[in-house]
């Protein structure tokens, strides 16, 4: 995979400006990432966010600047986390990239075309899995295939592969209400992957889970990312989770939501349980903690 390209505000592209710059002393090169074959829609462009701002109108007639001047270049196959305190615009950013929310200013290009809703090449996974209790686990996973009108036979074969990857094979015909919270999130992850999206958007997918389950799912997600190599944007409040999973951690601050720093995670891949509390992981975590210290 190609290395990260210069981003707006990076030391190689422009001087430091409030909110979008990368502090030179914190930027570190990351190791090589194994990327498997990409779907045809993936282009060399990756995801390009330029001068992005979002202002919401509030119910009392005022305005909230949820995002201001976001500039970011994400490479195909990269795993990038967005981390910052509540209200810094993480969900807003993810929803704009998903094409579910219009921006106020700026542009977002996903694999060479403007962000738009209903793209077959992207999937979003939310904090709470929205599963349908009248459908089996397998049929919940196949839902996007039905919505997009894709071939069910090949998708069913893919769904079975994903059931295996997420360790759910024996639950394929179960009702979703028979599953634990962690298992439901794994169903949600399998459903997000069933159309083989080139871009996976995840908004705090594991934050409602207990620590043990979260850790296990983080290990599974790291393994899936290394097997599938899909571009993944992951929102979290959890520093260890962000470091363990990511190639880069985008640190944000609130009101207005801005990028304050981007940390290149220096941890080898493939990543497994042994990296969770390794000295290198802790060192990376302290860089992230330092970047957002003011907002913890
Ligand atoms: N529909 C809306 N109307 C008005 N303001 C909104 C709306 N949605 C979000 N906001 C405001 O935009 C800002 C960013 O919200 P957003 O949900 O993107 O933050 P977040 O970083 O995802 O927060 P959290 O970590 O709590 O999920 C907040 O100040 C929020 O109050
Ligand atoms: Mg949010």
TrEMBL record:
State the SMART domains in the record: AAA
Q: Which domain of life is it from?
A: Bacteria
The GO terms this record gives for MF are: ATP binding; ATP hydrolysis activity
UniProt region (Disordered), positions on chain: 1-42
Q: Which PROSITE patterns match?
A: ABC_TRANSPORTER_1 (PS00211), ABC_TRANSPORTER_2 (PS50893)
Q: Does the keyword Transport apply?
A: yes
Q: What name is this protein filed under?
A: ABC transporter ATP-binding protein
Query: What's the source species for this entry?
Result: Aeromicrobium piscarium
